[in-house]
Design a protein that fits this description.
Elements lengths: L15 E5 L3 E5 L4 E6 L4 E2 L2 E2 L7 H15 L8 E3 L7 H4 L8 E5 L2 E2 L2 E8 L2 H10 L1 E2 L2 E2 L9 E7 L2 E2 L11 H8 L1 H24 L2 E12 L5 E4 L8 E5 L15 H8 L14 H19 L6
Antiparallel strand pairs: 1-2, 2-3, 3-7, 4-5, 6-7, 8-14, 9-12, 9-13, 9-14, 10-11, 14-15, 14-16
Helix pairs in contact: 1-7, 4-5, 6-7
The structure holds adenosine-5'-diphosphate and magnesium ion.
The site of adenosine-5'-diphosphate has 18 residues, from β2, β3, β7 and β14.
Length: 300
Amino acid sequence: MSAVKTVSQTNVAGLSLIHRGKVRDVYQVNEKQLLLVATDRISAFDCVMPNPIPHKGAVLTALSAFWFDRLQHLTEHHLITAEFEKMPDIVRQTEYLRGRSMLVKKTRVFPVECVVRGYLEGSGWKDYQKTGEICGHRLPAGLRQCEKLPEPIFTPATKAQSGHDENINEIEFSKIVGAEVAAKLRLLSLEIYREASEYALTRGIIIADTKFEFGLAENGDILLIDEVLTPDSSRFWSIETYAPGKSQLSFDKQYVREYLETLDWNKQPPAPALPTEIIEATTLRYLEAHRILTEKNYNN
Ligand SMILES: Nc1ncnc2c1ncn2[C@@H]1O[C@H](COP(=O)(O)OP(=O)(O)O)[C@@H](O)[C@H]1O
Ligand SMILES: [Mg+2]
């Protein structure tokens, strides 16, 4: 693979950084607009790795833009443009932002994670094993790890400032956002998941679960925000390898996780360096996810 410039951290002259997440850097462009910049950072076991993954930020951005466009008829969203040429001058002055940035409408974020699960894994699987329920949804007995659920369920969580998000039931969810908004977010989340997962299945990818965020626009509209239906916000599995009763190969980070499991590392920062072959294999997985879902080759 040819050498490609990676971006681990951004610092944009003239824009103020308002948030640095594990993967994305968020800038205020003006009172009404934000710039969401996906870096090439990768996290595994909740820890950011020291090596960037070439193309990752651009691939995630292209994938989110693809979904916003495709889901347009179901929900309003925050994306103004992901095309670099259409961005304000102040953004275009920094060439490395090209391809990895989304100019979006600034919203008041509802402080909840709108999770939809079609399959039983992660914290859902843990809760089910303990209580037979997830977020107040009683499920049939005897389901296996990663098994398909009778129907997709809405399983919201708090958006913890630090530490881990906590699954909540619909009453707690309503208390946080109000009953009317709660009903809308629930319905939108389920509709978006249903449509996206049906489409992904025709491309050979199972979207086992995913997390959406919504925000309130200035005019009172509810917008789908953040990144959508990327491997970072969802569990993608290949239908070719899917088999319930055990954990599944994760589409994107499998090589990173498997490599880290071979080490004597306690999963606390600082994370160990990744070998070149692991980095290259991971880039290929991100490119593949993009190619399969969008039916386009990613070229940059
Ligand atoms: N349109 C938007 N308006 C306001 N905030 C947004 C919008 N879209 C995304 N955000 C926020 O930007 C932040 C992106 O940060 P992220 O990289 O996800 O880091 P983390 O989730 O680790 O805090 C999140 O806090 C998200 O809620
Ligand atoms: Mg986030």
